[in-house]
Amino acid sequence: MHGARRGVIYAWDGRMLGGNSAFAFIGKYDESGEEIRAEVSTVRHHDDPGYQPLFETDRITLKLRGWQEEDHFYFEGGSGQLPGIPFKSLMTPISDEAAPPFSLPGAGSIANGLYSIHIRMLDGVDGGATGVMVLHDGRIRGGDGYFDYMGSYTSANGRWKGEIVNHEHTPSKGERPVFGGYEVGIGFSGTYTDKGAEAEATALAAKRSIRFRAMMKKFADW
After folding, report:
1. Which residues, listed in sequence order, are joined to residue 204 by a DSSP beta bridge?
2. What is the average per-residue pLDDT within 2-25?
3. Using an 8 Å Cβ cutoff, are 206 and 179 in contact?
């Protein structure tokens, strides 16, 4: 056993896109009766050596068999690159109830797909974060090993804006002291190209207003 990791994944219409603070997950799935077949590959998006891969290699493709039990989805399988090493995963759905309403974007809007996101705090606040974000027809879904993001956006002519709800899906135990323990509302605006995007945002954590800058790089198309 090589250990355990956490992350988020957005599954929709046969596609699976997600990740955590250092790795992006790109895959597909097929449902046949009660069984789910999935194939998911990993790619590193954050070069910090402190984030070690689960299988001691940055790029790996997993072939998985899954099934649902009540509100949970279980997967097991492995990789031909590392035969004999089993992989097991538990996926717990995150409610969409807190997600802001969205509208379908028009022509020329920011491209659907999976993006890495690197956040740097402003105004002298220490800290930052990395994660992934899926943009899909006006929806934002994403997160990292501790937080999930649910939001919406509008975009046109190289500029975009939107809102996000940041929620702690796994207790961060002080590793993210700014947002840890809070459901945080975030508003943002910025610019985009066909390769990525950037934005400045303001988050409200309890009674504290925090500004940060986010840089995004596109990793996979939808």
Report:
1. 185, 209
2. 93
3. no
Please say whether the beta carbons of 112 and 136 come within 8 A.
yes
In the chain, the domains with their CATH numbers are 8-91 (no CATH), 113-221 (2.40.128.380)
> In the structure encoding, which two tokens stand for residue 151, read together?
């939001």
Contacts of 83 (CB under 8 A, 6+ apart): none
Tokens 């990395």 — which residue? 130
Read off the pTM.
0.91
- Residues near 209 by beta carbon (within 8 Å), at least 6 away in sequence: 202, 203
Residue 52: DSSP 8-state: -
Q: Please check whether residue 142 is in contact with residue 149, taking contact to mean a CB–CB distance below 8 angstroms.
A: yes
> Sorting pLDDT into bands at 50, 70 and 90, what band is 2?
low
pLDDT tens, residue by residue, 155-190 = 999 999 999 999 888 887 655 555 666 688 999 999
- Lowest-confidence region among 22-26, 179-183, 211-215, 217-221: 179-183
